[in-house]
Amino acid sequence: MPVAELLQRHPEIWRGATAHPFLTAVRDGSLPAGAFDTWLVQDARFVADLLRFQARLLARAPRPAQAVLAGGLVALVEELAWFEEQAAARGLDLTAPALPATAAYAELLQRLDAADVPVALTALWTIERTYLDAWTTALPGAPAYREFVEHWTVPGFAGYVAGLEAAADAVGGGRDAVFLDVVAAEVAFWDMALGDGALGDGAVQSA
């Protein structure tokens, strides 16, 4: 099953991740700066975790998938530098401890190291597609957050997500269970910034 079909198979949970109240508040300007800063610090931690996961996946991925994964790794390194610049400008401490949803997401990525490549690629595509669609929902963003929304909706990012989709499809991705795990983790991550809870444990398995 093509991975894009997962969006149609699970529309309700997909809307929960990509049209979350956090994103609505970014768009209309009602999000408190403190909530955004909490999310930004935790997202920097997540990107570091994702970088490690993706590097390990690159090492075991089939040859046709390696170029898009390698390109994504370079982008993640650059993204971490950008987070450091933003944190310095906003007076944020990127060494702050991981909150429960962030720690749970890191554990999910660690479990995916033991999953087969189609499952892991489906997960990575889901992560990035959620991010792209979520920030597209927030366009154009309130003035206080517009720079961030624009940063995460550039055409090059959409092209990268399309490349991950092709890589996942080529190895027979489209696994429902891991898609649902990742989307639940994404919802928990938005909730975290609003103080509404954290991700519970969930198994990663082939569907």
Automatic annotation (TrEMBL):
GO terms of biological process kind? thiamine biosynthetic process; thiamine diphosphate biosynthetic process
One GO MF term on file is: thiaminase activity
Name any GO cellular component annotation.
Answer: cytosol
Among its keywords, does the record have Nucleotide-binding?
Answer: no
What family does the database annotate?
Belongs to the TenA family.
Descriptive protein name: Aminopyrimidine aminohydrolase
Source organism per entry reads Modestobacter caceresii
The top EC class, named as a word, is hydrolase
What positions does UniProt annotate as the active site of this protein? E186
Q: Catalysed reaction per UniProt?
A: 4-amino-5-aminomethyl-2-methylpyrimidine + H2O = 4-amino-5-hydroxymethyl-2-methylpyrimidine + NH4(+); thiamine + H2O = 5-(2-hydroxyethyl)-4-methylthiazole + 4-amino-5-hydroxymethyl-2-methylpyrimidine + H(+)
- What functional role does this protein have? Catalyzes an amino-pyrimidine hydrolysis reaction at the C5' of the pyrimidine moiety of thiamine compounds, a reaction that is part of a thiamine salvage pathway. Thus, catalyzes the conversion of 4-amino-5-aminomethyl-2-methylpyrimidine to 4-amino-5-hydroxymethyl-2-methylpyrimidine (HMP).
